[in-house]
Amino acid sequence: MWNYILFFGGNHYEYIDCNGNTKKIKPGTAHLLEHYVFENTVEGNLLDNLKKYNILNCNGGTNTDNTSYFFNTVINFYECLETFLREIYNISFILRKNLIRQKWLFIVRLEMIKIMKKIK
C-alpha cells in the first residue's frame, strides 16, 4: 500500500495564493477537489489508468486536516507508483465544465447517502 497526504482538509476555509493574498473557499472544497483529481489528470481518469497494472484498489479520503490518496497492489508496484505520482502532480487545469460536473455528482452522492440513512 502506498499513501500520499495533502495537508488540505475539511477545516480549511482559506488559502494564500501565489501573490500572498488570502482567499476564502467554501466548505466541502477539499472533498470536491479530492474527487476532481481522480477523474481529471492530464492522462485521464487515474483509477482507469492504474487498472492496467492490476491494482487491488485506489481511493482517497478527506478528513478535517488533510486529504489522502492511496493504492494497493501486490505486483507492478513501481509502475503503479510512477503512474500515480505523475498523474496526481499533473491534474488538468480546473475547467469550469469539469468542476460543475463533479459538483453535481458530489451533490447527488450526498443526497443518496441521506436517502439510505432514512431507509435504515
Strand content: 15-25%
Cα-to-Cα separation, first versus last residue: 33 Å
Shape: globular
Q: Please describe the biggest sheet, giving its number of strands, its sense, and whether it closes into a barrel.
A: 3 strands, antiparallel
User: What is the tally of beta strands?
Assistant: 5
Mean pLDDT: 81
Give the radius of gyration.
16 Å
Low-confidence segments: none
Order of helices and strands: EEEHHEEHH
Q: Quickly count the helices.
A: 4
As a percent range, the share of helical residues equals: 40-55%
Main sheet strand line-up:
1-5-4
Derived from helix and strand composition plus strand pairing, the structural class reads: alpha+beta
Commentary on this structure:
- The protein contains 4 helices and 5 strands.
- The protein is an alpha+beta fold and 120 residues long.
- It has a 3-stranded antiparallel sheet with strand order 1-5-4, with helices on one face. It has a two-stranded antiparallel ribbon with strand order 2-3.
- The longest helix is centred in the last third of the chain and has 24 residues, at 96-119.
- The radius of gyration is 16 Å and the shape is globular.
